[in-house]
Amino acid sequence: MSVRELVVLGTASQVPTRHRNHNGYLLRWDGEGLLFDPGEGTQRQMLRAGVAAHDLHRICVTHFHGDHSLGLAGVIQRINLDQVPHPVTAHYPRSGQRFFERLRYSTAYRETVGVTEAPVDADGTLATTPAYTLEARLLSHPVESYGYRVVEPDGRRMLPERLAAHGIRGADVGRIQREGVLDGVSLDDVSETRRGQRFAFVMDTRLCDGVHALAEGADLLVIESTFLDEDERLAVDHGHLTAGQAARVARDAGVRHLVLTHFSQRYTDPEEFERQARAAGFEGELTVAHDLLRVPLPKRR
Prior knowledge:
The protein contains eleven helices and 18 strands. By secondary structure, it is α/β, with parallel strands linked by helices. The strands form four sheets. It has a seven-stranded mixed beta sheet. A hairpin with a 4-residue loop joins strand 7 (124-128) and strand 8. Helix 10 crosses helix 11 (271-279). It starts with a strand and ends in a 5-residue tail after the last strand.
């Protein structure tokens, strides 16, 4: 059975706390696993969350600040130690090539798995598979940073009442799906478009066009909200978002489930992030993330 869920490995920003590890997020998408921003301690958090190196197919790094990338060394070495049998691809800003190489080869180990490097240097499509398209958009941060978006191709939803009206049943249902027409009846006559699911991952950034493009129509949006609204000046100065800003982005983009994360250690009340997000007008499903949380993608519309 296919599984589509977000496994939250860490939710802290620059400084981890007793209760929050540095960043780390695994998206399970059917039989694949996409690991986003493995910060320091990610390998141990994977163990706690029941995530194995064999679950990883792609590693997507938004930028090369330590809380988003220092776990790369351990994760890549674990992939090799466990001799993961399938290809693993790493995406990261091309401007950070030297940092990726330093982390990949930071210590001696036996390299048994060829991790394919696929750096990002512009907005656009990074990969297309039968199950999804992976896209990137440039964000606004003191160092080059990209957000990521996973989009499932649209499909078709068969409409039983229209099938019945045209006398189509049994094996003929499969035939019209394959061939597009049956005895003068077209597939459009008996079905409708089933919109593919969309996942967006937005980390360290100010408000910018890339944020809105990534969030547009997302079923599940994972987005940083490092600061509360009263510290908006700090957010702008350091290239971050507030809870209210993140929520307004989600509201305007028609996001179904909003996950706030990447919290500054200065705050002790997680519920304040939810209060400010609701005050900003977001009415969809809302989660203030904590470590080891699992969030399923919303069911299709």
